[in-house]
Design goal:
Strand order of the largest sheet of chain B: 3-2-1-4-5
Strand order of the largest sheet of chain A: 1-2
Structural class of chain B: alpha/beta
Number of strands of chain A: 4
Distance between the termini of chain B: 25 Å
CATH class of chain B: Alpha Beta
Shape of chain A: globular
Shape of chain B: globular
Largest interface: A-B, 37 and 24 residues
Strand content of chain B: 15-25%
Largest sheet of chain A: 2 strands, antiparallel
Low-confidence stretches of chain B: none
Mean pLDDT of chain B: 89
Structural class of chain A: mainly alpha
Helix content of chain A: over 70%
Distance between the termini of chain A: 71 Å
CATH topology of chain B: Rossmann fold
Strand content of chain A: under 5%
Mean pLDDT of chain A: 91
Number of domains of chain B: 1
Number of helices of chain A: 23
CATH class of chain A: Mainly Alpha
Low-confidence stretches of chain A: 1-8
Number of strands of chain B: 5
CATH topology of chain A: Amino acid/polyamine transporter I
Order of helices and strands of chain B: EHEHEHEHHE
Number of helices of chain B: 5
Oligomer: heterodimer
CATH architecture of chain A: Up-down Bundle
Order of helices and strands of chain A: HHEEHHHHHHEEHHHHHHHHHHHHHHH
CATH superfamily of chain B: HUPs
CATH superfamily of chain A: Amino acid/polyamine transporter I
CATH architecture of chain B: 3-Layer(aba) Sandwich
Radius of gyration of chain A: 22 Å
Largest sheet of chain B: 5 strands, parallel
Helix content of chain B: 40-55%
Chain lengths: 495, 149
């Protein structure tokens, strides 16, 4: 803007300038990743179909582990199979908890609101379905994560899709370059996913909630979203650049309690209107198959539900495999069983609770629901029953966002490390870029943030799911072998 | 009760504190008098149900080794030396887990009939919130517990 026009036109705020620059980038990217074919009135993005097919395929390929594997998973997490000599190593519970804290974030609070504001209550049904089927994909990728992890000389462990794509795909197909290509493709997308869904979306929605509870449009922070982003960036930077790990450790320990408070608040809303629960479920089921007034009808709702579920539980995306692979076990399939619980906790339990809260309170039916979307809608739903809860929600949201950002910065750093041979310079560049995007995410409106975040997260599923298909036999053999060892008593309970 | 006159196997739980050293000397002297075995146990407090960051998990295996090495050098070695000064060659154990549970487990595993422990040096606040290990042990142990001030 020239000096002459600057005098005539009001200067754009920093938030608006960031939006003008970033919005078109996000649009272009989403156009490519979410390439859609028309089905009836709806446009069906092929990437969503890609994830649905993978989840359904692995459900049957692995023999309905959602049902058969569930009790075994619980026993593993409870330490029933943990040998005493492994005390002090990473337990199944710890690996699961760490992975869950990376997945449970704003996707569960704000993402669900986005889904319902776009697709109506019926979107919940498809989210639950996606969570249910996604359990199998998650099982496959986490089993492989442990099978092909790298134990370094200094005793640290690295695992995740980069390693199984590179090593296992090369072994199975006999083609080194294919594995290396998929692994590098994944690592690049993972860096993008870390910056998008694992960072910008979290920063954005946490910022929105802070502005909401400090007075909305009258808030001192209104139009200063970037400033909140700077605070977040300083906190994240203190941990990942400054090495002040105690901040992350404390957060990690508070988050489970915040999650409990959040779920308790959902229960207060749900139990307070117990009479409306059957009607809410009715809306959810009927809305799933014959939605009224939803763009794209049945297919439209299905897409919204699956998309937001995948964004929330990351099944098929490959990220959680990085966290799960730190577990101490000689049986990789055990962590696969444990990983079944992750989409269950994330989507079938937590997302459903959020959804019921939004549906029961009728917040989704407000005329401006689709406009405000995200965390503001969830917050409004709570406010109608527990007027002071938005403040607590703000605290919860800040902690969830922060812990998810820390987890994803780790995933991104692992991917960077993989691409650049653990080069400290490359990792430092990634950390700085990560912090810069915290500010960008906070400054933008939800629209471009969600487009960019979705695009990057979903891109990760392309190399990962190709790898999972190539390794389908490997993973099934491992899981079958484990089942046999459990049945024969070779892998026995210790308590 | 037989243990009043003669003890058959003593477990002494140790940490870095001064009372802990006195506990070792007391237990060793008793073991020598009764001609019985002495086991020095140090438990590194750890729970499989804690919440960790991804990088903590990544380094966990290495840290565990470091913790065991540090405990062996800084806690077990001085305790062993103290016992040897009293004329007893103790067996030593370092484990991760719940100190109370594991000291009881080691006691039962060996058929020992006395546990000796130093009074813990925790602050009043910490004691008020979590209680102290000796106090928990006294309440839960299947054999007599001697707490040395």
């Amino acid at each position: 803007m020239s000096a002459a026009t600057a005098g005539l036109l009001p200067l754009a705020t920093i938030d608006e300038q960031v939006e003008d620059w970033f919005g078109p980038i996000a649009d272009k990217l989403a156009e490519v990743v979410f390439y859609a074919v028309p089905v009836g009135d709806a446009n069906l993005p092929l990437i969503v179909v890609w994830l649905i097919i993978a989840a359904v395929f692995f459900t049957f390929w692995l023999g309905l582990p959602q049902f058969k594997g569930f009790p075994h998973a619980i026993n593993l997490v409870r330490g029933r199979y943990s040998k005493p000599e492994d005390a002090g190593e990473v337990s199944h519970f710890q690996a699961l908890a760490t992975a869950v804290s990376g997945t449970v974030g704003l996707g569960n609070i704000a993402g669900v609101a986005v889904a319902i504001s776009l697709g109506g209550p019926g979107a919940t049904f498809w989210m639950i379905m996606a969570g249910f089927f996604g359990m199998a994909t998650k099982m496959a990728e986490c089993t492989l994560g442990v099978m092909y992890r790298h134990e370094h000389e200094d005793g640290t462990v690295s695992g995740g899709p980069m390693y199984y794509l590179r090593d296992a795909v090369a072994k199975v197909t006999g083609s080194g370059p294919l594995g290396k290509f998929l692994a590098a493709f994944f690592a690049v997308c993972c860096i993008g996913g870390a910056i998008g869904g694992g960072n910008m979306f979290q920063a954005n929605q946490a910022t929105v909630q802070i502005v909401n509870v400090t007075g909305g449009e009258d808030s001192v922070f209104a139009d200063l979203n970037w400033l909140i982003g700077v605070f977040f960036a300083i906190a994240v930077g203190a941990v990942i650049i400054g090495g002040i790990k105690s901040i992350a450790r404390v957060t990690e320990k508070i988050v489970p309690f915040m999650a409990a408070i959040y779920l308790a608040a959902c229960l207060v809303v749900i139990l307070g209107s117990l009479g409306q629960v059957p009607a809410a479920f009715g809306d959810i089921v009927s809305g799933a198959f014959s939605p009224e007034g939803i763009a794209g009808g049945f297919v439209g709702v299905l897409i919204v539900g699956f998309q937001r579920a995948a964004f929330s539980n990351e099944a098929g995306i490959g990220s959680a495999s990085i966290a799960h692979s730190a577990v101490k076990t000689k049986e990789p399939a055990t962590e696969g069983f444990v990983a079944l619980l992750e989409p269950f906790i994330d989507t079938v339990v937590i997302c459903t609770m959020t959804a019921l809260t939004i549906v029961i309170t009728g917040a989704w039916d407000d005329p401006d629901a689709s406009e405000i979307g995200g965390v503001s809608l969830t917050s409004r739903a709570f406010e109608s029953v527990i007027p002071w809860f938005p403040n607590v929600l703000a605290l919860a949201v800040i902690l969830f966002a922060f812990s998810t950002m820390i987890s994803w910065s780790y995933y991104g750093m692992k991917a960077t490390g993989y691409l650049f041979g653990d080069s400290p310079t490359a990792e430092m560049v990634f950390k700085v870029v990560f912090c810069v995007f915290v500010v960008i995410g906070a400054a933008l409106t939800l629209g471009p943030v969600i487009l960019f975040s979705d695009s990057m997260i979903f891109l990760m599923s392309i190399p990962n799911v190709i790898g999972l298909y190539i390794l389908a036999r490997t993973v099934r053999n491992e899981i079958r072998g484990h089942r046999e060892r459990v049945e024969s008593g070779e892998f026995a309970r210790v308590k | 009760m037989k243990w009043v006159t003669r003890v058959s196997g003593i477990v002494v739980g140790v940490d870095r504190s001064e009372p802990s050293e006195r506990a070792v000397r007391f237990a060793a002297a008793l073991a020598k008098r009764d001609g019985t075995g002495l086991t020095v146990v140090h438990v590194i407090p750890w729970s499989p149900y804690s919440f960790n960051t991804p990088s903590e998990n990544e380094e966990r295996h290495r840290r565990r080794d470091e913790e065991i090495a540090a405990a062996t050098e800084q806690v077990i070695a001085p305790a062993k030396a103290a016992a040897e000064e009293e004329g007893v060659e103790p067996e030593t154990v370092v484990r991760h887990g719940d100190p109370v549970d594991l000291i009881i487990e080691e006691t039962e595993k060996r058929g020992c009939d006395l546990i000796v422990m130093g009074r813990s040096g925790d602050s009043r606040v910490k004691r008020a919130i979590f209680g102290s290990y000796p106090a928990h042990l006294v309440q839960e142990a299947p054999v007599p517990v001697v707490v040395i001030p």
